[in-house]
Design a protein that fits this description.
The complex is a heterodimer of chains A (about 110) and B (about 120). Chain A contains no helices and 12 strands. Chain A has about 110 residues and is mainly β. In chain B, the strands form 2 sheets. In chain B, strands 2, 4, 5, 6, 9, 10 and 11 form a 7-stranded mixed beta sheet that branches. A 4-stranded antiparallel beta sheet of chain B has the order 1-3-8-7, with no helix packed on it.
């Protein structure tokens, strides 16, 4: 079946450091892939998406590339800010438009 | 962009009370809405899928008589937690999507339910 695996957190970084959060998936076919972000006490916000192999999603300095060969969709940002502290969820869309989420990775950025 | 509004954002009530949570899509017609439950520091667990004008489809292990879902219009779905007990305390989040398998889901801000 479909599944998403994310690196365990928490990830703790200093401001302006480089960020990578790994995400790999198992799926039949080539589903759309998403990164969502959840700030404390809030719902999820769509951060970026990619709908086919080799697509690169980007938003607010974050990027992720849909890699079919490695079944990965790693999230990267060149220079994180304190305001990026949140929980990040990798997800794929399965049957009936249901989202299948990874466990989430908590990011803490310190000044 | 698309906005999903969820209300209330926080509710505290006594055990045995029924609680209704509303999920509205504000600027698009949501053919499908989803209800999730999230425990502290955990991922989202899909409870049910709600399609406008039809009965909700519940995930395995979710009691449909406990968690009543109504999706009477293209902009509103409600989740009612009936006869709530402390173990029902959780963060409930709805999402909405327009038709099409590649359309992203847009999430509400969640409802924190605390049952005393």
């Amino acid at each position: 079946g479909n599944s998403v695996t994310q690196m365990e957190g928490p990830v703790t970084l200093s401001e302006e450091a480089f960020l990578t959060i790994n995400c790999t998936y198992t799926a039949t076919g080539y589903p759309s892939l998403f990164w969502y972000v959840q700030y404390p006490g809030e719902g999820l916000q769509l951060l970026l998406k990619a709908t086919k192999a080799d697509d690169k999603g980007s938003n607010k300095g974050f990027e992720a590339t849909y890699r079919k060969e490695t079944t990965s969709f790693h999230l990267e940002k060149g220079s994180v800010q304190v305001s990026d502290s949140a929980v990040y969820f990798c997800a794929l869309v399965g049957g009936y438009n249901k989202l299948i989420f990874g466990a989430g990775t908590r990011l803490a950025v310190h000044p | 962009g698309a906005v999903v509004s969820q209300h209330p954002s926080w509710v505290i009530c006594k055990s045995g009370t029924s609680v209704k949570i509303e999920c509205r899509s504000l600027d698009f017609q949501a053919t499908t809405m989803f209800w999730y439950r999230q425990f502290p520091k955990q991922s989202l667990m899909l409870m049910a899928t709600s399609n406008e004008g039809s009965k909700a489809t519940y995930e395995q292990g979710v009691e449909k008589d406990k968690f009543l879902i109504n999706h009477a219009s293209l902009t509103l779905s409600t989740l009612t937690v009936t006869s709530a007990h402390p173990e029902d305390s959780s963060f409930y989040i709805c999402s909405a999507s327009f038709r099409g398998s590649n359309q992203p889901q847009h999430f509400g801000d969640g409802t924190r339910l605390s049952i005393l």
